[in-house]
Write a structure and sequence with these properties.
CATH class: Mainly Beta
Helix content: 10-25%
Oligomer: single chain
Number of domains: 1
Number of strands: 10
CATH superfamily: Calycin beta-barrel core domain
Shape: globular
CATH topology: Lipocalin
Strand content: over 45%
CATH architecture: Beta Barrel
Strand order of the largest sheet: 1-2-3-4-5-6-7-8-9-10
Largest sheet: 10 strands, antiparallel, barrel
Structural class: alpha+beta
């Protein structure tokens, strides 16, 4: 009797939502999502940036730069961005990972144009698009942003939308990347 109860109890515990077995299954699925991102982006990319017209850039602007994406370890994907628009050199770093406790992709974005230096954001796959959403402060003003990535094996399109909290997001920039060097895992 005790053995039967123990077997039923063990089977019940491992079938509960949030149980170790389900958690491992969920972790494995989301680990695949992180690997999917790494596979799509790892390498060095030549980029062309088209900034839309704005109060700061009434005619918009086009310029070039580079993005280096890597998987430094620990289930993290890292983006290093460098460009030289007319308003000054831009250096940015972003990290992407799966947060098991929160059950979602998270990220950290650090940039010279961010008054706070770094901000966290959320990310997710929607079919073939990788979407990031966050908030930041630029020149003392709170803004929200969304980036939408679409990847192929040798190129990507990254669209950045910006707006006021609770307001409409407007296309601010389009980045087109061409892969130069594939990243290699040792």
């Amino acid at each position: 009797m005790k053995i039967a109860v123990r077997i039923i109890l063990t089977a019940t515990i491992f079938s509960l939502p949030g149980s170790a077995q389900n958690s491992q299954s969920s972790s494995a699925t989301h680990a695949q999502d992180v690997k999917r991102l790494g596979k799509a982006v790892t390498g060095t990319w030549s980029i062309t940036v088209k900034d839309e017209s704005s109060p700061a850039l009434p005619k918009g602007e086009m310029y070039e730069g580079e993005e280096i994406w890597s998987e430094p370890g620990g289930g993290v994907v890292m983006e290093q961005y460098h460009s030289k628009p007319s308003f000054g050199e831009q250096l940015e770093t972003a990290l992407f990972w799966w947060d098991e406790k929160a059950q979602k992709f998270k990220g950290l974005w650090c940039a010279t144009i961010n008054d706070e230096g770094c901000n966290s954001f959320n990310a997710r796959w929607e079919a073939d698009q990788f979407i990031c959403d966050g908030e930041w402060i630029y020149n003392g003003k709170q803004l929200v942003w969304r980036e939408v990535f679409v990847f192929s094996s040798s190129s990507f399109v990254q669209k950045l939308y910006i707006g006021d909290p609770g307001g409409e997001l407007k296309l601010a920039s389009t980045i087109r990347g061409t892969k130069l060097i594939s990243g290699k895992k040792s």
